[in-house]
Amino acid sequence: MPGEPTALTDPQPADRHPERHVVLVAPEIHWNTGNIGRTCLAAGARLHLVKPLGFSLASREIRRAGLDYWEEVNPAVWEGFEEWAEALRPGPGEVAVLTKTGGRPFWSMPRPERLCLVFGSETRGLPAAILEQYTDCAFHIPTTGRTRSLNLSTAAGIALYETLRLAPPFHAWDRKS
């Protein structure tokens, strides 16, 4: 069942794949959440959704955005950010908050074995309390300023794969000569 601490991660040997968690705080748009879920599944990351959600998880649209993978994504759903933090108990250096006001570029994020990437809602971003709690680990994805922000699913994909850039290579399909 989503949100149960027993199903937080897929145990994998440390030399195979780092443990990654993508945390969406109050996501509003089901298509973004579905796309992020699919990306998490492809990257071997766990998706966490922190309420309130701006959509129903039972909606046809979220399943369509996640394609036929949504059942495999099986996101953990939390009543609030504090509940998530209490269950996962991230240690020092295990949280990276992504926000357009972050003090450092995303390519300087830490790459520990276990990392939680935290994103806010599409229209409001992260609550001030979370930004204040994680001031030292707030990162941004540089933009030209010609837009207000990046799409949430785009930002999540950029940040997640950046954290895996130095990880042992993985790919599901054999290369053809």
User: How many DSSP E strands?
Assistant: 7
Termini Cα gap = 43 Å
Largest sheet: 7 strands, parallel
Task: Report the CATH C-level class.
Answer: Alpha Beta
Number of helices: 6
Give the overall shape. globular
Q: Rounded to an integer, what's the Rg over CA atoms?
A: 16 Å
β-strand amount: 15-25%
**Class from helix and strand fractions:** alpha/beta
> What's the arrangement of strands in the largest beta sheet?
3-2-1-6-4-7-5
Keywords:
177 residues, alpha/beta, single chain, Alpha/beta knot, seven-stranded parallel beta sheet, disordered N terminus, 7 strands
Summarize the structure.
With 177 residues, the protein is of the alpha/beta class. Helices cover 29% and strands 18% of the residues.
What secondary-structure arrangement, pairings included, does this model have?
Blueprint: E1 19-25, H1 30-43, E2 45-50, H2 60-65, H3 70-73, E3 76-78, H4 81-88, E4 95-98, E5 104-105, E6 114-119, H5 128-133, E7 138-140, H6 152-164
Parallel strand pairs: 1-2, 1-6, 2-3, 4-6, 4-7, 5-7
Helix pairs in contact: 1-6
Notes on the structure:
The protein has 177 residues and is an alpha/beta fold. It has a single domain, classed as Alpha/beta knot (3-Layer(aba) Sandwich), CATH 3.40.1280. The protein is 29% helix and 18% strand. The protein has helices spanning 30-43, 60-65, 70-73, 81-88, 128-133, 152-164; strands at residues 19-25, 45-50, 76-78, 95-98, 104-105, 114-119, 138-140. It has a seven-stranded parallel beta sheet. Helix 1 (30-43) links the parallel strand 1 (19-25) and strand 2 (45-50). The longest helix is centred in the first third of the chain and has 14 residues, at 30-43. Mean pLDDT is 87; it is low at 1-14.
